[in-house]
Each structure stands twice: as C-alpha cells, then as structure tokens.
UniProtKB/TrEMBL annotation:
Species this chain originates from: Rhizophagus irregularis (strain DAOM 181602 / DAOM 197198 / MUCL 43194)
GO biological process: epigenetic regulation of gene expression
Compartments, as annotated in UniProt: Nucleus
Annotated GO MF terms: histone deacetylase activity, hydrolytic mechanism
GO CC annotation, single: histone deacetylase complex
Transmembrane segments: none
Coiled coil segments of this chain: none
Keyword entries, A-Z: Chromatin regulator, Hydrolase, Nucleus, Repressor, Transcription, Transcription regulation
Family the UniProt entry places it in: Belongs to the histone deacetylase family. HD type 2 subfamily.
SUPFAM superfamilies reported for this sequence: Arginase/deacetylase
Residue span, Arb2-like domain: 464-640
InterPro entries: Arb2-like_domain, HDACs, His_deacetylse_dom, His_deacetylse_dom_sf, Ureohydrolase_dom_sf
Name under which the protein is recorded: histone deacetylase
Enzyme Commission designation: 3.5.1.98
Length: 659
C-alpha cells in the first residue's frame, strides 16, 4: 500500500474500496475507487477494529491571496498533522480513505443553491474580485483553489463517515481543511466555506439509513453554522463546549452560543451549549463537562454515529483559544466518545492554530482511535467558573434529559400553579408533630416577635446534597435526628427537658449566634427561672456551643447556682470560652466537660480555664456532630447520673439541650 503522505502527482492515492453499503436510498454520487486490495480481504478482517484517515495534499491549495501575509488558518496545518501521524508509525496502522469533491446535491442538503453557486464562481474570479468578495464576509479569504479545496474537504468528511457506516472502518480521523463549523446555510464564515460536518450528517441520514447523529464540537469557538443547521431537528444533538465570555468571543452571537440556546420546536434540549465564561480552562474542566453533561446526554440519546467537530484551538499553546487542554485531555474525550454508537466515531478537523499543539493533540486522538489507552490525567479538579457553568447547563437541560438531576431551587423555575415548599419548614412541621405525639413535648411559645419568626418549631435535617447544586435529592434523603435518643433517655429518667434544635441554613444570617444566644436567654429567664429547678444540666453540640457559652456569660450567677454539669460537643467548630473573670472561669473549668476529636486544631493552642475541661477523643476524628452524639451517649449519661446521684435526688431537675 502506498503510504506516501505527500505524493506529488496530485492524484488521489487512496487504495481502499468500500464494501457494498448495507442500505442506500439512491446510488447517486457514488465514487469509483482505484482498487489496491480485494474487497474479500476486507470482508475477512471485518471484525477487527480499523481506523480510517482522510487526507489529500491538494487541500493545501486554498490559501491567502496575499501570499506574504500569514493567516492563522495556514495550509501547513494539515501537513504537520499528517507528518506527525506518519512519523510515529500510526499511519501504517490506518486505512486511507480517499477524499473526493462534494456534489452540489450533497452540499445543498445544508446550503442554499446561491451559496453553492457563489463558491463555484470563485474559481474563475480575478484577484480583485476575490478580495472584494472575501471582504464582504466575516473572516474569510479566497483564492481560485478555494472552491475545489472546500469541495474536497467536505467530500472527504462524507467519505470517512460512509466508511464508518458501511463497516470499512470502525472509526476515523478526517485531516481536512478548510474547516466547516462556522459556515452558514447561505454564506461562508470564520475560515469555513462548506459546513463539512453538517453536510456529512445530512448525507448519512438521507442516503445511508442513519437516523440519530450526535455532534460534539470541542473547537474553542461556538459552531454557529452547525447549530443552526439542526436547531429544529430532534434527531441530531449538537453539543458545543466553547469559550464564550458573555458573547464577546468569536463568533460573538450572545444569544446563540449561550446555554440558554437549547433547540427549537420538537428539538428542545437537542442543542447543548457549554459556554466557558473565560479563557484558561483545563483538562479538568473539559472532563468534568464530559462526565456531568456530555456523556450522560449522549447515552440517553443513544446515537447511531458520533461526529466530532475536532478543532484543536482549545489546546495548550493555541494563540487564539488560550485554553490548556493537553493531548491527554483530548485522548480521554475521544476515549469516552468511543463507547457510544458501537464505536462509530469520526473526528473531523476544524480549527487549531499552533502547529505543534494541533499535531500532538491530533496524534493523541488518533492513537486512542487505534485502540491505545489515553495517557493518564492528573486529578480532576474543575475550577469555580466551570462548576457554575455546568450548574447552569444542567439546570437548563434537566427539563429535557432524564439523566440530569433536576435542579429547581430558585423561585423563577416555578411553573404557574406550582408551590415552592421550603424543606426546612416542612421538617420543622414534621418534627413538632412528632415530638408532641411521641413525647408530649410542645413548642415553647416565643413572645418575642423576632425570635418567634426565626426559631418557632425548629428542626434539624441531614440530606444528600449535591456539591454543585445545593439541591436535595429527596429520594436519597433521610432526617437523622439524634435528639430522639437523648429525649428518650432523659424522659426515661423522669427528668424535664427543653430541646432547642437549630438547623443549618444555606445563607447563615449574619447575627445567627446573637439570635441563638437571645433565644437561650429567653428560655432561661422564662422557663428555668420561672420553674426554679434544683439542678440543671446543659448539653451543647455543634455551633450551639458558642451560644450556650454566651448564655453562661449573660446569666452567670444564676447559672453557677443551678447548673450541676455542662457538656460541650463542638465537633469541628471553634471551642467556646466563657468570661475570664476568675470566679466564673474557675467554676466553668470544674463544671464543663468539652469533648473534642483528637485532630481538632484547638489542641495546638494554649488551653485556658475559660475553655473548661477538655478531653481528647481519638474515636471522634472526622465524625459528624450527629454521630458524635450517638457515640458519646452512654458515657455521657453514666457521667450525668453519677453527678445527679452524688448530688441528691434528680426528679425536679431540668436538662437543657442545645444543638
Ligand atoms: Zn475554532
């Protein structure tokens, strides 16, 4: 087989004759191939995965008419890639698929006849006409070879897609130029003349019985042309990951490239935009987007074939893209996409302007197409801008894809007639009802209006929350309320109890600690002082410890008289302290047991009287406070009972618990 990547005869050198297509709806535009191998030998080895490549050196002829002016869409782009693939020995393992010119009929499955006619005419225009016409379009240059190269580039992608569909190869790489994804239905744009991927997609669907196509566009730029070609088509998913910058990055259509552009009519959700708000995104951000959005949607869609608009201008070192995707990152994305559609995957070159970056990136993809594992990535650690972008995409797309967890937490997501119920309110109501029916505990009426608003019927819940969404997955969520264990023990010993349970809230009020302290003072003054119990035990847990220390400071003499024991379980929170005043701090040291995990940073500090008597407990390391309460329960109550027994009868004592 002739492997010359840069033959000089100008003739096509592809030596593979495709197998007869299983289904065709018409035989027009079929190309007669020069035959190098018998089709029988292909049939015999059909079960082995094969990787195709399309390349034709004549695609270099399209160039800037001002030959001394360098243009980033450099004809060398495809030759450096081809040389890299050849020099590493990969080309020997690939099946060369012949490029050929797209026909008018094929191109016009996407483009208008006017567009086809205009491109055709450029072959015979004078230099002045070429310059004048190019200037009328957005980021286009033309010469007399442009039309031929554009037809070859587009036809090359079609041929590779056909070879994948008919089983000649399993997957493949189209090393073609000019690129395609900016080309609009009726005009060239952004270095693109015909929309190669869009035309190939329509050819497969019209002529080769392909129903559903998944197009993934990882070029740094949004593929405006491809998106528009399929915007209302429910059988084509167009998914683009691109630099967006609120519409300031090329092609600069703020509405079209945002995550809010989702497809129209029957095709809502079939356009998926992942718009990066800035440059500098890395492998981590792309892999995160793949894991959270691209792959779940691709599996749910279940395409017949996957085509990648494989620009390499998001690659590390690209002067235009300024992102940092490494060859390994591109390899991993290719690897993931190979799992879809029976492995039917085509990568078609789009942009990419650093010759070194694009050749290394393309090689990494080709190696994965050939069956090599992608090289190892570092730990995936997406940045905050990535997390927020993905959150917005999921929030928008979850209405159309079951695989994406619905994220409705803002009031604007409500549909008319839907009631938004606050989970914390729901749990408070449940808890109040339960405490009454089980233990006849009743809510303490709070005469203070402000306290009443904030603290009436407080409940505590722990739920399965998603790190990027703050949403609660109700089916996986349980209310773990350790308080019941304590209530049962205390009531079982015929003691009284005041239970104060404050759930953590997403937006912690600024004066949360002061409010909680005010609540405890209110309860002390109105319930404890009023009923005058002989003995009081204070138990604090979590954030509540600090407010409890505040109560001790505010009601010091009354507390020193009545409180026989204080137990503080701050968990990972700060260790509270009372006033340094000698009588109070001395009392607190002998009265208060502070139970701390051995790895609490507090142990590195100097422990003072006003911190109480602190105990280091290995078992509590990294344990949630709720679990600490269960773990310490038995020891704590044997300690409490000892104090109560040694100090006299306990029937009239109250225990106050603050969590
Ligand atoms: Zn690009």
């Amino acid at each position: 087989m002739d492997m010359d990547i840069d033959g000089t005869d100008g003739k096509p050198y592809v030596l593979i004759e495709p197998r007869k297509l299983p289904v065709t709806k018409g035989s027009r535009n079929r190309v007669n191939y020069t035959n190098g191998e018998s089709s029988n030998s292909l049939l015999n080895t059909f079960s082995e995965p094969k990787t195709g490549i399309v390349y034709d050196r004549r695609m270099r002829y399209h160039g800037n008419i001002h030959e001394d002016e360098h243009h980033p869409e450099d004809p060398k782009r495809i030759t450096v890639i081809q040389e890299k693939i050849k020099n590493t020995g990969c080309l020997n393992k690939m099946v060369l698929i012949k490029a050929r010119e797209v026909s008018a009929e094929e191109a016009c499955l996407v483009h208008t006849e006017d567009h086809w006619d205009f491109v055709t005419k450029t072959a015979h225009m004078s230099d002045n006409e070429l310059i004048k016409n190019a200037d009328e379009y957005n980021s286009i240059y033309l010469n007399n070879e442009t039309a031929f190269c554009a037809r070859l580039s587009c036809g090359g992608v079609i041929e590779l897609c056909k070879a994948v569909v008919d089983g000649t190869v399993t997957n493949g790489f189209a090393n073609v130029r000019p690129p395609g994804h900016h080309a609009e239905i009726n005009e060239p744009m952004g270095f693109c003349i015909f929309n190669n991927v869009a035309v190939a997609t329509q050819c497969l669907r019209k002529h080769y019985n392909v129903e559903k196509v998944f197009i993934l566009d990882w070029d740094i730029h949004h593929g405006n042309g491809t998106q528009k070609a399929f915007y209302n088509d429910p059988n084509v998913v167009y998914c683009s990951i691109h630099r967006y910058e609120n519409g300031h990055f090329y092609p600069g259509d703020k509405a079209l490239a945002n995550y809010t552009a989702i497809g129209g009519g029957e095709a809502k959700g079939k356009t998926i935009n992942i718009p990066w708000p800035r440059a500098g995104m890395t492998d981590s951000d792309y892999i995160f987007a793949f894991n959270k959005v691209v792959m779940p949607i691709a599996y749910e869609f279940s395409p017949d074939i996957v085509i990648v608009s494989a620009g390499f201008d998001a690659a590390e070192g690209d002067p235009i893209g300024e992102n940092h995707v490494t060859p390994s990152g591109f390899g991993h994305m290719t690897h993931m996409l190979k799992t879809l559609a029976n492995g039917k995957l085509i990568l078609a070159l789009e942009g990419g302007y650093n010759l070194d970056s694009i050749s290394k990136s393309a090689l990494a993809c080709v190696k994965v197409l050939l069956g090599e594992p992608p090289s190892k990535l570092g730990p995936i650690n997406p940045n905050q801008d990535c997390l927020e972008t993905i959150h917005q995409v999921i929030r928008t797309q979850s209405k159309y894809w079951n695989c994406l967890a619905p994220v409705y937490y803002a009031t604007e997501d409500r549909l008319p007639g839907q009631l938004l119920v606050d989970m914390a309110e729901m749990l408070k109501m449940y808890r109040t009802r339960n405490l009454y029916s089980k233990y006849k505990l009743i809510p303490v009426p709070l005469s203070d209006g402000k306290l009443g608003q904030r603290f009436t019927n407080l409940a505590c819940c722990r739920a399965d929350t998603r790190a990027t969404s703050n949403s609660i997955n109700v089916s996986n969520s349980y209310m773990i309320d350790t308080v019941y264990l304590y209530i049962e023990t205390i009531l079982g010993n015929n003691h009284g109890i005041i239970d104060v349970d404050v759930p953590p809230v997403v937006n912690q009020p600024k004066n949360e600690n002061q409010d909680l302290k005010d609540l405890l003072i209110f309860l002390w003054d109105n319930l404890i002082e009023a009923t005058n119990p002989k003995k009081v035990i204070l138990i604090g847990a979590g954030r509540g410890c600090r407010s409890l220390a505040g109560l001790i400071n505010e009601r010091d003499y009354s507390i020193m008289e009545k409180v026989v024991c204080t137990i503080m379980i701050p968990g990972p929170n700060e260790v509270p302290s009372v006033s340094k005043r000698t009588d109070l701090s001395t009392w607190y040291q002998s009265n208060a047991n502070v139970l701390l995990p051995a790895n609490h940073p507090f142990w590195e500090k100097k422990i003072k009287r006003e911190h109480g008597t602190c105990s280091k407990i290995e078992d509590l390391n990294n344990m949630p406070v709720q679990d600490m309460l269960v773990h310490l329960h038995n020891d704590m109550f044997s300690h409490i009972n000892q104090i109560l027994v040694n100090g006299g009868p306990a029937n009239s004592s109250n225990e106050e618990r603050n969590n």
